[in-house]
Amino acid sequence: QVQLVESGGGLVQSGESLRLSCLASGITFDSYTMGWFRQAPGKEREFVGLIWRIGGETYIHDSVKGRFAISRDSFKNTVYLQMNSLIPNDTAVYYCAAMKFYRAFEPEKVVDYWGQGTQVTVSS
Question: How far apart are CA 114 and CA 54, in angstroms?
Answer without folding.
Answer: 20
